[in-house]
Amino acid sequence: MRSANTAKNLSHRCALWTSLAALLILFLALTGLAGAEEPLRKARLMPLWSPQAQFAGYYMALDKGIYARHGIDMTILEGGPGRSAVRSLTSGEADFAVLWLATALQQHDTGLKLVNLAQIIQRSSLLLIARKASGIARPEDLQGKKVSLWDGELSLPVLAFLDMYRLRVQRIPQSYTVNLFLRGGIDATSAMWYNEYHTILNTGIDPDELQVFALHEHGVTFPEDGLYTLEHAYRGDPAFARVVARASLEGWRYAFAHPEETLTVVLDRMRRAGVPASRAHQRWMLERMRDLTRMDSGTLTDDDAGRLHPSAYLDAAAILRDHGVIREIPDHTTFTGGDDARR
Fold first, then answer.
1. pLDDT digit string, tens, across residues 112-149
2. Domain 44-123+224-335, CATH number (from 2.60.300.12, 3.40.50.620, 2.60.120.920, 3.40.190.10)
3. Is-contact 120 201, C-beta < 8 A?
4. pTM for the whole thing?
């Protein structure tokens, strides 16, 4: 009898331990599921051009884990000659792209609907540069002169400037360098303030030797680099688009707050892409990008940073319409996603 009771107690204890073990396994499994992180969502971004400090904010958002912290597994594709940011969107190669506002408006007018998620460069940085020794002191002095222009949409602001002064010039295709201008083959060259202008100065030409026409000082106020996606993609998941924009702006703020670290990351990306890299030139570019974005100027609140301001948008669109580049001006609210895509 005693032996039977002992066996019965042992059986009860075994059943109890089995139940406890099962409960423990279930608890650990549930805890593990609850603590598991959400998988990162993949996205691809195509910059407007080859790796350089013009895109430093996106590089830092990736390098410092900002995109990952926002739930994004971001891949930054390599832009450059023959790599169209617009085509990368339409082909499905990229989900997001850096485009000029003039480009986005022109594409919108042809039927490719885009949404501006964040406006990075707040005004035109385009310049026309001539030598004072050539006798060019005013816009009117460009009449009949040889002026180099980039292909496609990059020439739109310059063409608007020329039309504004009713100038007829000899248009010369501009390559990826300013060598033709340096050799005296043309009278004036297109240049970006953050790039080619500094290249010209680095050849030993004194700024006082140059006549510089900053387009924004002549009423051609074109905001340039912005972050875009296709409208149908945005409508499919506006919350994700906002997160990408927010993370990208955070990357820009980090880049401006940590310039030397940022330059190291930019230069490494340039070298891996086989692009000639100069720390001094990239430092100039990063500093000018800070000026152009106005994120570090102290004059904008966090809510203003990255915003495509309606007045600047309408001014640029009106110039394009008046010069026959676009037929109609899209509604600003629709063009920016129907709400503030940065939040």
1. 999 999 999 999 999 999 999 999 999 999 999 999 99
2. 3.40.190.10
3. no
4. 0.84
